[in-house]
Each structure stands twice: as C-alpha cells, then as structure tokens.
Specification:
This protein is an alpha/beta fold and 347 residues long. It has three domains: 56 residues, 434 Repressor (Amino-terminal Domain) (Orthogonal Bundle), CATH 1.10.260; 133 residues, 3-Layer(aba) Sandwich (Rossmann fold), CATH 3.40.50.2300; 133 residues, Rossmann fold (3-Layer(aba) Sandwich). Strands 4-3-5-6-7-13 form a six-stranded parallel β-sheet, sandwiched between helices. A hairpin with a 2-residue loop joins β1 and β2. The radius of gyration is 26 Å and the shape is elongated. This is LacI transcriptional regulator.
Amino acid sequence: MIYNIRNGIMFEPFTLKDIAKALGLSTSTVSRALRDTHEISPETKKLVLDYAQQINYRPNPIALSLKERRSKSIGVSLSEVANQYFAQVVNGIESIAYDRGYHVIITQTHEFYEREKVNIQHLASRSVDGLLVSLSAETTDTSYLQNLHQRGLPMVFFDRVTDQINTHQIIANNVKGAFEATEYLIKQGCKRIAHLTSSAHLSISSERLNGYKQALAKYNLPFNEAYIKYCAHGGMFQEETDISVRELMNLKEKPDGLFVASDRLSIGALAVFKELKIKVPQKMVIAGFCNSDVLDLMCPTLTSVRQPAFEMGQIATDMLLNLIESKYPVHDFEKKILDTSLSVRNS
C-alpha cells in the first residue's frame, strides 16, 4: 500500500474523499472523473486527474475488489515453471495480466492429478477471477473443473486442453510440428523411427502421434507400435525416460531415429544415449519438441520444433480477461491454433 508522507511523517493514503474535499467536489464526481466516464465534463476530468497525479493518488485495491466483487487476480495451473517452455508461457501471461491490472498466482502440478486438483480448488477458494489451465500428465478426470466452470468460474485451457469443458482453448499446431520433425528424420535417411512421448490421454500426445503417423504414411514407412513409448509423467522422473530409451535400444530391430514430444523428454533422452555410448547423430538421429535455449549450447545440438510459448501465454490471458470482464454471458468459444517452426541443428 502506498502512503503519503508530509514533513517526514507517514499518513494514511489519500482517498477519494481527500480529493473531493480539496477540489470542492462530491466523491461520486471524483470517482467518475477518475474512471473517465462520459457524465463528467472534460474540464472537471482534467482538474481531478491533474490533482490526483500531483498527490500521487493510487486507488485502494482492496476497496476496488470489494466494490467490483473481483479480486483482480487470475490463477495459473501448469506442469513446472522450471520447464523453459512453461516459463516462456508465464512471461506471456504476466505481460498481459499486469498491464490490465491483474495479479497472477502460479501453481505447479509436477504432473500429478491430486496436486493439480488441490491447487485449483485452493485458487478458487481464494476467489481468483479466472483460471488458465494446462492439464497435468496424470489428469483424466476433469469433473472438478467442470463443476467450477458450471458455477461460473471463467477458465481458458492452453497447451494441454480438454473438450469436456466448453470454453476457449489455445494450442500449438502439434500435428504440423510432429509431421515436420518426423519428415526431417526421414530425409536424414532414417527408416525405423521411434516416438518418445508423454501420457497417451493428453491432447498434445495424441496430436503429435497423429503428425508422426502422417509423416510415416506419406513416405510409405510402416507404423510399428513397439516404437512408441509413453512416459506417464512426461519424463518428470529421469527413470521414466531411461527405461523407455533402453527398451527401444533392446529391440531386435533397433530404431535409427527418434522423435521426442517434449522439452524434458528430449534432454533426458540425450542423457541416456550418452550413458549408453550411442553417438548422436551418427548412430541415432533425434528431433523433438523443445523450447529450451540450452539446446544451442549442447553437444550434440538438437533439431527441434519450437512453439510460440510467449504468444500462447499472451493470447490465453487476453481470452480469459475478456471472459472475466464481459458484461454479458459468453457462449461462442474459440480454439486457436498457433504455428510452430522447425529449427534444424546438428542432431
């Protein structure tokens, strides 16, 4: 809270009443002038705004939230802020939210359903004005989210979405990104391409598997179920990635290429190949979804599909705030798909 200081003594913050008394106006007139409503003349608005600036007046956020029945805060549920992709999404979220006067409360699921559920219910109990949600790898039951949505809590899904709740969604073009990554491996001469991915039920997993299959079909390569490895927690635990990669390399017909579906899995897979003394890209060519800037410093570097994470965060937040601030019920929702790009490196 900002206090005003006169002659070295700290006083309570200036209020609407203080401004009204100083200018000989009513508090309602001052309030309308500060909110730039049409009922107040330009001259009076200028008088009030100039004086407010002179005394460094700041509205009381608690009083505002009580009056508007809003907390001016939004909750975010995502996998892990340490993940470079989600860190970029958060930067996008904050860039919009703070400019529009909202605070952002971030929670991490670490890919656990129960933690996601507890976090989101806690956010709802703190009266956040809305939620931005990217589902955990464990989440198959969204009934608790459906209940909150039916009770009027606005929410927007990003990256990992569900069709069980009728609201805005924003995702990357996962099918296109997966197709291009797999096609890159094929053009490098790979004939037996494996796919390392997260939980099968996640929207991103099914979309990326679809793109992978489309590329194989285009180039008349057979789809082999044995080459698909699911990591239940998206590689949150290195043991998951380790087991999956070792199982692939123990196959009679070992893969010569690997398409990986996420940042964490990509970096984890490289660590396993190093431990197995399998040279990349000489013995194994890899391409994957990864937004980490560390890739350019790694040896070998990794060809990757880059998602517009910052833009995704911005658009999701704009969508949510428009829902929150809408004066009328919203019934038309959008599923926005953002383009991806393939960064070719020496992998």
